[in-house]
Amino acid sequence: MSEFPDSASPEPGREPNRVPLPRTRGTGLRQRLAELRGPDVPPKSLDARALAALAANPGCERRALLDGAGVDKAKLAGALGAPSGFGQSQFAFMRGNAFEARVKADGGAELLRLVHERLDPRAEPPTTGVVPDLSAVGPEGRAARTALALREATGAGVWTLLDHPMVALDVAGSPAFLEPDAVVVHPDGRWTVVEIKSFPMLDGSADPAKVGAAARQSAVYVLALEEVAARLGTPPQEHAAAARGAGEPDTAAPPAPAEAPGTAVPAGAPVAHGARTGAPEVSHRILLVCPKDFSNLPAASAVDIRKQRAVTRRQLARLTRVEDIAAALPEGTCFSPDLPAAELTTAVEAVPAAYAPECLSACDLAFHCRDRALAEGAVTSLGRSLRSELGGLTSVTDVLAAAHGEAGDPRDPAVAMLRRAARLRAEALDGHPAGAGASEVREGAACR
Description:
The protein is of the alpha+beta class. The chain folds into three domains: 25-86 and 321-379, no CATH class; 90-238 and 275-318, Lambda Exonuclease, Chain A, CATH 3.90.320; 390-446, no CATH class. The chain contains 17 helices and seven strands. Helix 16 runs antiparallel to helix 17. The termini are far apart. Residues 1-28, 235-276 are annotated as: Disordered.
């Protein structure tokens, strides 16, 4: 049989027709993302903190593509000559690990006690908790093992602690594997996310900004767990029918017990105590555990994250699919940090960005994007609120020209506001030169 099934056998002295076989959609995307990272460059995992920052700026295609492709933005920023200026110190990292180990000591007895005390006081107190083994090969294997452990714990009817489980969340068409600090399964089958932080909780309250960041990070975990719960709550025959594209499942049929991949339930087998055939409930309240005052003792507080979950879900849904962004790039585009700075700059600038001052505390490429925004005179460097008020005026040059009457449609509300502010400022400076600063404050307030 010929070695070239799709073409005629090559004649002596002629090159064979090496036409590659068509790639499937998933395989083609993975190969394309690997080409963007560079040869032999391993992908950087996307954590919940990065996802929360990405959801806060869904209009930035640059970050969506780089995060989806697994590009290490810190190394990329260093190769561009604009290294990032934030990160956790080694001391803080070691202190956080030591505190987390203390909270989870003795099979998580103290952690389960805090969950019972703060979130589920009516349940049976946790005398002994179950800590399943979640070890597996690769993130996909760990995610599958976590889903199986969650299914078993939901039907067991006892307190269960999942230490560093692995869950997956689809982000702009690319899977992101996330690792919460812990997930607790209550005796009634509910799932609760536990976030352990090293910042102190003084007199029962912590820094609101840090609590908000922890809530946004936990919202990502809750979204991923809700996807797992939805899969576990789908009867296997309906799940298979949906996978085959057979249309809507028969909702009139009674739901069957949820099955984990590779696990069969014999017909007529008894259902374990506490088992549920519907989707398990993922609690909208998470447990935030921090050091108490200035000690190393744990203190906990329940945090309602419904608002953060809704915002994060909406923002992630707005993200452009990674494959669509990658398809618009020039052939040969690569973000490997080993490339020359000029070539890297060209590759990075080929992807549109949406810079804002808030990026400085959330993105490794923020300093590079800020320098480019300032060089181009983009109004985004002045803040998102101002950018939204200026409408179609995207550069400082356009804003000044509109304010001085040299350009812009006078019927545009933004142009009219700028010309009125410029007129008020000119009148104030003509009458009271020394009070120019106060006049500018008044005219800005009058035009809001």
